[in-house]
Amino acid sequence: MSAPISLVDRRPQADAEQIVASLVPPPQFDGATFDSYRPDPAHPSQSEALERMRELATVWTSPKRGLFKRRAPEVKPGIYLDGGFGVGKTHLLAALWKSMPGPKRFGTFIEYTALVGALGYAETVRALQGSTIVCIDEFELDDPGDTMVMTRLLGELVANGTKLAATSNTPPNALGEGRFAAADFLREIQAIADRFQIMRIDGDDYRHRDVSGHAPVTDDDAIAGELERIGGTVALDDFDALIAHLSHVHPSRYVGLVDGVRALGLRGVRVLTDQNDALRLVALVDRLYDAQVALRASGVSLDRVFSDEMLGGGYRKKYLRAISRLHALAGEG
């Protein structure tokens, strides 16, 4: 096997055309369909969300009725899935996207804001206009500026006939009980508030990971051997060096950091004390999870990388999702 590469040595770049072309579901959802979604019988809201998404796929792709035919019940042009991590929101979002005719777009909130940054607002509107559907995974309300730009963008798309589908990902503690409050989201998108149906999906993490447990820890001397056993293109980095590198790469380009990597080894994992570092790591974990990159790490167990203070703060929901994904990736390969 060739020597491991280093993510720190990568300087990913992406132009606007590449970002637009990449607005499709991650490869791990290639097999995501309505039929392959398995609702948990203990949580009826999952079956309800599945049936509603099926209905929308039918209604949104049906020809418009003639002038003298019976008028169908009004269906809002947007659906918003709100729920905890690991309940299948992204699976349902990808299934809906697949059921719609093109042109269509699927991306995370941060990918759309990156597109605005790369193209400018007016050009972004032109690039997305004409889409039958725009799917937004992990909608975030962390940055008021980004939120208002997206609010305006979504309003223009809906006005021109584009359907919208989104999943929630927002700081929970200020919204009560660790859950996203629909009213808070609707206030942020006043112009199109009445066009969204909000659906809550309850349930347990389908990965069945106990977030109070601990991800495996590998000795420094054994990481290289573990990576060799996994095979393919692998990377090996010091944790602190990688965290520092992330501050110099826009999160929209993190996908380029992990492109083609089968496994990543991290030496000297420690508890993070800076919130910005922690949020950047969350963004990287999301891209690692999308690409199903196996993880091997020494130092502190990966599930302990976020401090107790962080886990009790406004971004608790994000950190718990990242821990769940870190557990899953630590068992990959």
From TrEMBL:
Keywords: ATP-binding, Nucleotide-binding. InterPro entries: ATPase_AFG1-like, P-loop_NTPase. GO terms for molecular function: ATP binding; ATP hydrolysis activity. One of its GO terms (cellular component) is cytoplasm. It comes from the Bacteria. NCBIfam families: ZapE. This is ATPase. It comes from Agrococcus pavilionensis RW1.
